[in-house]
Specification:
This protein is of the alpha/beta class. The chain contains eleven helices and 23 strands. Residues 350-452 are annotated as: Lon-protease-like.
């Protein structure tokens, strides 16, 4: 029998230390070292349960099929996964509580059960609770089997006995290995249980979905190594009081990480949104200063979103700056450019920038739209509803070109926009019914749209 010893493991990155330290030497996070008891004999390993000796194989002898993908029955999920589910892959889905992780997996399970047996492992809900939710969602396929279990070795026995084509584990933080002394959800348990599940996926054709809880900062709870171990990491985004959800891929070994899927939460579960632009602009009805539309590119899909800006005189010595859906530091940079290069003196005004509908925009192509939304509110001049604004803004006030301009403009034209403000020097596509106005600087853009 091996002796047990006490170690400290960073909950953020999995770094191990024999003594407690306030700052993790690996990821430099503060107060993330948790005490755990570790057996010197150690676990047997992620692949040991297979009871076979691994042998090297020549790369020429490995048989593969590039088209070996299975449709989930949900086109938006297939889009994010890169065209479908790859056999034997390990997929991690994270998101805030109540955002829809279990809902979409239960709906997906019902579809996948038409192609083979599916086992849904629940560590948080009883079978009766899942059955009740499944009844509301219309989940009735007899090839879908439910199991309320949290011990990983028992799960492995069930998988070996029934050999399901798809396995769903909800959630990984509730699963534990009885051979480890640490508590469920700890770094050691999460890492070991994920490794054992990975052993199933990589040595069989079983595809595994696992649900991961998120921390207050929005990352998946547990060590970063959890994200490194899986093939695909998907995040559910959106506000709980909003009806729509965005499924974003942040890691994908079998496809692009730029695609998103858009869903609407209804009484009967998540419903696909095939035209997200129309959804995000559906409530843009009130004419007013500070509102402008831009086109964000998510993978191969252009999505039209509304950028809102509000500028008002400050009541404090230091003006407030608040953002929602766009990077705070980026907005601060754009406001400095507006003061220095466009002559808008904002140092005594509070400024608020919002992306309507709870969407997040990370690409610089929205810079010019953010700048014009702020300028519109500052000047109290309304931007006409038929304008779309695209372009990156540099520190000297220049408007820089962006990628995939043509498909962004085509999407705008389809939704009725007739005028577009774009960077000077861009290749101007010929799109019927759409007038294009190239500008060199942000000040020139303000003059064109707001009339100086």
């Amino acid at each position: 029998m091996g002796k047990n010893k006490t170690i400290f493991i960073c909950r953020e990155c999995g770094y191990e230390s024999i003594k407690w330290v306030g700052k993790c030497p690996s990821c430099l996070s503060w107060n993330t070292m948790d005490e755990e008891v570790k057996s010197t004999s150690g676990p047997k390993g992620a692949f040991s349960y297979l009871n076979k000796i691994s042998q090297p194989v020549s790369i020429k002898d490995i048989i593969f099929d590039e088209q070996n993908r299975v449709s989930s029955g949900i086109s938006e999920l297939d889009r994010v996964l890169g065209g479908g589910i790859v056999d034997g892959s390990l997929i991690l889905i994270g998101g805030d509580p109540g955002i829809g992780k279990s809902t979409i997996l239960l709906q997906t399970s019902n579809n996948l059960a038409k192609q083979g047996n599916v086992i849904y492992i629940s560590g948080e809900e009883s079978l009766q609770q899942i059955r009740l939710r499944g009844q509301r969602l219309g989940v009735t396929n007899e090839n879908l089997y439910l199991l309320a279990e949290t011990e990983v070795n028992t799960i492995l026995e069930v998988v070996n006995k029934y050999n399901p084509r798809f396995l769903i584990v909800d959630s990984i933080q509730t699963i534990f290995n009885k051979d480890l002394p640490s508590a469920p959800g700890s770094v050691s348990q999460v890492r070991e249980c994920t490794g054992m599940l990975m052993g199933i996926a990589k040595n069989t054709t079983t595809t595994i979905f696992i649900v991961g809880h998120v921390t207050k900062e929005g990352g998946i709870a547990g060590p970063r190594v959890l994200e490194h171990m899986v093939d695909t990491v998907l995040y559910f985004e959106g506000e709980r009081h909003q009806s729509f959800r965005i499924l974003r891929g942040v890691k994908n070994r079998f496809g692009s990480t730029n695609e998103i899927g858009v869903f609407e939460m209804t009484e009967k579960g998540l419903k696909e949104v095939l035209n997200p632009s129309e959804l995000f602009l559906s409530q843009r009805q009130v004419e007013g200063a500070g509102s402008v539309v831009t086109a964000s590119l998510e993978g191969t899909r252009p999505i039209l979103i509304e950028v809102q800006g509000l500028v008002s005189p400050t009541n404090y010595g230091t003006p407030r700056r608040m953002t929602d859906g766009v990077d705070y530091n980026r907005v601060a940079l754009l406001m400095a450019v507006l003061e220095k290069r466009a002559g808008l003196f904002l140092n005594s005004y509070d400024a608020y920038v919002n992306i309507a509908g709870g969407v997040r925009v990370n690409e610089p192509a929205a810079d010019l739209a953010v700048a014009l939304a702020i300028a519109s509110s500052f000047k109290e001049k309304t931007i006409p509803r038929d304008w779309i604004v695209l372009g990156e803004v540099g520190l000297t006030g220049e408007v820089r070109s962006i990628n995939r301009l043509e498909i962004r403009l085509k999407e705008a034209q389809k939704l009725g926009f007739t005028k577009a403000l774009i960077p000077y020097g861009s290749t101007i596509p010929q799109i019927s019914g759409l007038e294009v106005y190239p500008v060199k600087t942000v000040r020139e853009g303000i003059d064109v749209v707001l009339g100086g």
